[in-house]
């Protein structure tokens, strides 16, 4: 019982060490993330803060000149601001007819959240919350499933391409799949940027920025498609193209994220399995095996002597650890013939050495 308790303590200690390594890994990720946030904040501060101050001064100058030129009070000017801001979404047409509502539902399910149009009534807000609670998990599962199918399709294409090129290794590796999905994502973003630049009148860089922000579900809302020239009602083809771009693009991005998450989970599982195997090996290496002799002698699993014993003496090399009661006589069938035919164990029997039966 004492030995069992000892080894249980060892296994528990090794498990705690493994958990400590996992805690260190998690803590390292947290530290790296916050460090990355600090670096990002410093870079954005240096790039945007000065321009923001200049833009604010410019807008304040325009406001003062407008009020002075048209003799408008501050309250009237504030009312004009509210009217202009609230009227902006209606430039796209009715936001809550079926086409606009379907576009809004897609944005909610995809967790993009542009903020270009929001429900105003209490019933609309309540239904939006309930709809999101069901729709967001459903959308995540759908995009994840489509991403897995895309990865499967890409692996088939890669294997056939490698066979056609007579490569030595024809299996599709994770790196091959990541390169394939990365290239497909790049093609979708660059093609979508060209399309939106054509229909929205944006520069190509701004269109590329919009596509990236949309497919990564950041959704700032500073650039939103289908918001000009009554596009929701007058351009049904463009509306369908925008919805296909969002849904298919998110599926491809989900395929890339699926590979990254799978790789990370594989690394975590491999680390946990390796830690468990190390703990088992270390516990097995230190487990004693005791031979039942007059003087107890313990060996570990590697055969090293753990405790002192008076069992050893000058005749040890002729002693047999056997399950029978003999000392290796010639008429015992449990023994193989001796390598030396002239050797007889009667010499041992006649000596003063006292040997007892030993069992494992």
UniProtKB/TrEMBL annotation:
It is found in: Membrane. The chain crosses the membrane at residues 26-44, 96-114, 126-146, 177-196, 208-226, 238-264. Gene3D superfamilies: 1.10.287.70. Keywords: Ion channel, Ion transport, Membrane, Potassium, Potassium channel, Potassium transport, Transmembrane, Transmembrane helix, Transport. It comes from the Eukaryota. GO terms for biological process: stabilization of membrane potential. InterPro entries: 2pore_dom_K_chnl, 2pore_dom_K_chnl_TASK, K_chnl_dom. Residues 94-150, 186-261 form the Potassium channel domain. GO terms for molecular function: outward rectifier potassium channel activity; potassium ion leak channel activity. It is a multi-pass membrane protein. One of its GO terms (cellular component) is plasma membrane. Pfam families: Ion_trans_2 (PF07885). PANTHER family: IP11374P (PTHR11003:SF291), POTASSIUM CHANNEL, SUBFAMILY K (PTHR11003). Belongs to the two pore domain potassium channel (TC 1.A.1.8) family. This is Potassium channel domain-containing protein. The lineage of its organism: Eukaryota, Metazoa, Ecdysozoa, Arthropoda, Hexapoda.
């Amino acid at each position: 019982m004492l030995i069992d308790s000892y080894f249980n303590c060892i296994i528990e200690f090794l498990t705690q060490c493994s958990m400590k390594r996992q805690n260190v890994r998690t803590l390292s990720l947290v530290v790296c993330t916050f460090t990355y946030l600090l670096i990002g904040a410093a870079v954005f501060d240096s790039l945007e803060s000065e321009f923001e101050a200049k833009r604010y001064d410019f807008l304040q100058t325009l406001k003062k000149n407008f009020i002075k030129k048209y003799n408008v009070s501050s309250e009237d000017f504030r009312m004009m601001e509210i009217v202009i801001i609230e009227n902006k979404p209606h430039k796209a047409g009715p936001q809550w007819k079926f086409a606009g509502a379907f576009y809004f539902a897609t944005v909610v399910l995809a967790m993009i959240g542009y903020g270009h149009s929001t429900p105003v009534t209490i019933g609309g807000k309540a239904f939006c919350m309930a709809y999101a609670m069901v729709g967001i998990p459903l959308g995540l599962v759908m995009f994840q499933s489509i991403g897995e199918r895309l990865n499967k399709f890409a692996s088939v294409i890669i294997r056939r391409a490698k066979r056609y090129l007579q490569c030595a290794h024809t299996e599709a590796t994770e790196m091959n799949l990541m390169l394939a999905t990365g290239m497909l994502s790049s093609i979708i973003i660059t093609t979508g940027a060209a399309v939106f630049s054509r229909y929205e009148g944006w520069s190509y860089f701004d269109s590329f920025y919009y596509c990236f922000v949309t497919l990564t579900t950041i959704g700032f809302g500073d650039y939103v498609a289908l918001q000009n020239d009554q596009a929701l009602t007058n351009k049904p083809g463009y509306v369908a193209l925008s919805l296909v771009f969002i849904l298919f693009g998110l599926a491809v991005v989900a395929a890339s994220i699926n590979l990254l998450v799978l790789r990370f989970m594989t690394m975590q599982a491999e680390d946990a399995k390796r830690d468990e195997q190390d703990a088992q090996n270390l516990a097995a290496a230190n487990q004693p095996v005791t031979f039942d002799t007059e003087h107890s002698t313990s060996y570990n699993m590697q055969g090293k002597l753990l405790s002192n014993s008076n069992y050893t003496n000058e005749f040890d090399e002729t002693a047999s650890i056997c399950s029978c009661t003999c000392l290796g006589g010639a008429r015992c069938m449990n023994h193989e013939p001796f390598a030396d035919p002239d050797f007889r164990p009667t010499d041992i029997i006649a000596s003063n050495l006292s040997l007892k039966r030993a069992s494992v």
